[in-house]
Amino acid sequence: MGSLRLGLAQLNVTVGDLEGNLRAIVDCNKRARAEEVDLLVFPELTLTGYPPEDLLLQPHFVQANLDHLKKLIPQTKGITVVVGFVDRDHDLYNAAAVLSEGKWVGTYRKAMLPNYGVFDECRYFKPGREFPIFTDGTVRLGVTICEDIWHPIGPVQIEALQGQADLIVNLSASPFHTGRGAEREAMPSTRARDYEVILAFCNLVGGQDELVFDGLSGIWNASGKLVARARSFEEDLLIAEVDVSQAVRRRLQEPRWRFAHLSEPLSKVPTPEMLLPRSLLKTKKSPAPKPRTEPIPPTLEAAYRALVKGTHDYVRKNRFKQVVLGLSGGIDSALVACIAVDALGTKDVIGVFMSSQFSSQASHEDAQKLAEALNIRLLELPIDGIFNSSLQTLAVAFNKKATDKTEENLQARIRGTLLMALSNKFGWLVLVTGNKSEFGVGYATLYGDMAGGLAVLKDVPKTLVYELARWRNAKDPVIPARVFKKHPTAELRHCQRDEDDLPAPYRMLDPILKAYIEEDCSVEEIVERGFPKEIVQRVASLVNLSEYKRRQAPIGIKISPRAFGKDRRFPITLHLTAETDEP
Amino acid sequence: MGSLRLGLAQLNVTVGDLEGNLRAIVDCNKRARAEEVDLLVFPELTLTGYPPEDLLLQPHFVQANLDHLKKLIPQTKGITVVVGFVDRDHDLYNAAAVLSEGKWVGTYRKAMLPNYGVFDECRYFKPGREFPIFTDGTVRLGVTICEDIWHPIGPVQIEALQGQADLIVNLSASPFHTGRGAEREAMPSTRARDYEVILAFCNLVGGQDELVFDGLSGIWNASGKLVARARSFEEDLLIAEVDVSQAVRRRLQEPRWRFAHLSEPLSKVPTPEMLLPRSLLKTKKSPAPKPRTEPIPPTLEAAYRALVKGTHDYVRKNRFKQVVLGLSGGIDSALVACIAVDALGTKDVIGVFMSSQFSSQASHEDAQKLAEALNIRLLELPIDGIFNSSLQTLAVAFNKKATDKTEENLQARIRGTLLMALSNKFGWLVLVTGNKSEFGVGYATLYGDMAGGLAVLKDVPKTLVYELARWRNAKDPVIPARVFKKHPTAELRHCQRDEDDLPAPYRMLDPILKAYIEEDCSVEEIVERGFPKEIVQRVASLVNLSEYKRRQAPIGIKISPRAFGKDRRFPITLHLTAETDEP
ipTM of the assembly? Predict the structure, then answer.
């Protein structure tokens, strides 16, 4: 028996770009053939990109995806390829085509459709109900797609027990959030060991709007041991030789039926056999590649790299050359500047310091120092002239009403307008610097500091902003030390401090927000964790009352289990009198 | 045999407001008992409001909904009530409780969950799998919820054939769009006749963010004939006496099995019988109410009233006292002013004319005339001072680059900032006046004319804006005739005309947009309808390129089969080189 040389093509594709994505698939396929790969696996919906959203409702787009898939078939001489596409009969299916020796051998249709969190797959797809086993006469191959593999009783069980698969591949588009990498290690390992199958997980990589796919594709042997792991946050072609003979021999001696008696309907599920025109165990001329195990980045590094990747791909895939952001001298804009520079390079990031009568000398200096340390261009645009002429224009209407938040928001909006003017004039994308704590309680001005194309820190709470900035500074201290020490302030009036405007200091605010937003806790449950009732009620109120702002916020990069955006869908019109302290 | 007095409680509830909604239910129940109603039906998810969205992920909210439902039980002496709530075991269900004589008799769980368009029900609910029949020993009652009734093979069939129901009630939250009223007439009539059952459809009414529920609840007899119809766009308690005896007698003579042989698995569906503690056919002291059949409003009137209702409910449910909008002297702002006045009254609408060097005398006069005719307050805030000081501030950065769209967007953003300043100072909600054609191709300035809380015309194409304005003017000519005649212009530069900036005049643009956005046509298919290829490609490109603007747009009121917002979910990052003329 020869050995099976497995390739995982961890690609960074773009939604809708059938031509470009096919080109990337064909390129990768060429490289894999040159390396004598037997079985090459691509990520979920490789051809269309993920998630294609309502593009799927356009019949011509689905047809074009099928037409492009057909162009790939003749490219599969000497190899077996599993590639993600949208299948169609009367309905649509999230599917994987198995192509080999210039033939379309068969199709697997995803059975478990996620429709929670950021996922809307039931909006588009019907679930598959067949579990074909692809075999060359010796090895038995099962195919699954993303969610399919996350259920202990599901397609893996069916293919391993009913279908007697030796090797199960999984095409994924599994987005990053903090801690996800480790979950994605434990699960396939358990699944492989439980069902005594080799498991190969090929994940997408790259940013798509709110989502960042982090790669980390991997292969586990039938004992659940990791054989090889691909890179994180970067494209990769992971090639590893797996010993299928052990799994095959074990099956021949004792079929995998260990738990079959527990699941009565199992035997009713169709697992038709499809014959591959090519052995999966060809003898190779080239030596077996040394298995590569790239590291899973630790928590802070992973979050930072997700933000860098998300920023890079949003900017570049949307064909912007440069970005601009307001540098206030504070920690948020300092961190965004670092992320932008790490994503795009120093030449493509422009900072703008927009001073007012309320700006401190320290802020000015710190913005300058940061720009110097990062080696980025810094523009200075004072806003007092526009502010004064705005107040003059509004004076008749305001009719001597006392100064209040209006004048603060006005300053923020003047700044937003200036950044957008630079964006219009030079084609720069505006990066928004607000953080998750601010977006949570609405401590941000709509059309002001919320104006821009991408809110880099939208899913990063203020306390994590500090941690990430410290982590980045440890590598290279570009952010002035004073920025870490001073009290956060919007500098929209004299002696303003965030903590005076907010219901609680950030170290208390952030865990309350996490409990309310990410854990769906009630006010009562949060109070039981030791927070003052009045503060928790006020925070909950602010979250609900500021939904209208978030609905108009720019998209941000998801790094937590629940981000604002597609991940959390809340009504604006909402009365929750019992729960919060709303009027 | 007595007759069955049926009540349909067409309520306007608010999402999340369990206390307030319960109060409305109890009030209505009292009125119905006083009128000797036997069976009182409420809309879908009456208690929580519809759609509750991710509130449903909060276990304490679901618990509170159950607690509030229990408070209703003792109020059901002398009546049988069917009310919508969220049921829970391990999973959640969109459910209806049948309460009678102080007892919770049983629960129906919605079987067909819509997960398309604006609907996300698979995100929250599991489908019901039982179809209980509630009977007093004589009459057999089936319960269904909204989508359930739209499928010929589905719950109605099961309850009518397998369950031998005489009367099927449907609790709905069916949002308005143009033409929906007529569809909702034809379908229940057909369904009633096909299955020989009496059908009672109780719809929600009122605005909830993007959606307007238009009421028009109705009752059809077992021949498919309309017995009574409730009001459109307003709360109503529709009471009508229905002759159930005919349906009952017919069933006793010949059970409803006409099509049963066609659906093999039908007999396997559980239709348990639940005994009602009270007859549905009590003898009444009061005379039978005269059946009321309120009219379905014709197309333009329906669209206009949907916009009025949506505006009213968004403003009032979000507890705003007054609204403000920019009056440009053009047709869009004129129509929005009319809608706002019809929704809120003249005292609660403030117009602002914000002149610039590019404003024409005609625009100024027309804005003034409109404000006078509508009897609303008009503020005048010239923007030239702020515009000039902005240009001065930006001069250093712009470095003598030629004037372009930047200076046009700047004016729009200054206007947006002024309106938001008034909003902040006086608590006025800003109404946005842009239309669907502009939102479609991105002919609008983000944070400029797109700034505000509600985009009233977001789902109204420009050509329909004219029709609606003409319709409104026919009742009372408040919009100056000149506004209809002049060429649409943003007045952001000298001699500007929309039609020079746009790929095509509105009469050509609107059908192209409808085909591309609402009908999912390809560029090719639209060209086949007789439009020039270059123009269609350009329109398609603009639609895709402006997705980032729409993502940050305020919500609007859905009146078409596909509105921007929850109804259409498109990626921002998207390459469609083959389809459009993108770079």
Answer: 0.95
